[in-house]
Amino acid sequence: MITFLRGKLIELGKTFIILDVQGVGYKVYMPTKALNSLAKESAEVKKEITAHTQMFFNQREGASQLFGFIKKED
C-alpha cells in the first residue's frame, strides 16, 4: 500500500496531478478542493509537495487508481 508520495509537481490537471518521485511519474487523482489549493500555493511547477494517498483497484477493469489528499485526515 502506498501511504504517501513526496516529490516534484510536474503537472496540475483538472482532476489529477503528475508527481515525479525520484524519476517515476505518478498520476494521482485529487478532489477539486485539493487541486485548487495546490494551484493557489504552488503556481510554479516543479515544487516539492506531499500527497497522502489511497489506492483503489477495480477488479472488473483490472486497473488501479491512486487518489491523493493534501491532509492525512482527508
Helices and strands in order:
Blueprint: E1 4-12, E2 16-21, E3 24-29, H1 32-41, E4 48-58, E5 63-69
Parallel strand pairs: 3-5
Antiparallel strand pairs: 1-2, 1-4, 2-3, 4-5
> What's the count of strands?
5
Percent of residues in β-strands: over 45%
Radius of gyration: 12 Å
Number of helices: 1
Shape: globular
Going by helix content, strand content and strand pairing, the class is mainly beta
Helix percent band:
10-25%
Distance between the termini: 17 Å
Spatial strand order of the main sheet: 1-2-3-5-4
Mean pLDDT: 89
SSE succession: EEEHEE
Largest sheet features: 5 strands, mixed, barrel
* Unreliable sequence segments: none
Walk me through what this model shows:
With 74 residues, the chain is mostly beta strands. The protein is 14% helix and 53% strand. It has 1 helix and 5 strands, in the order βββαββ. It has one helix at 32-41, and strands at 4-12, 16-21, 24-29, 48-58, 63-69. Strands 1-2-3-5-4 form a 5-stranded mixed barrel. Strand 1 (4-12) and strand 2 form a beta hairpin. The protein is globular and about 35 Å long. The model has no long low-confidence stretch (mean pLDDT 89).
Features:
single chain, 5-stranded mixed barrel, 74 residues, 5 strands, 1 helix, mainly beta, globular
Quick synopsis:
This protein has 74 residues and is mainly β. It has one helix at residues 32-41, and strands spanning 4-12, 16-21, 24-29, 48-58, 63-69. It contains 1 helix and 5 strands.
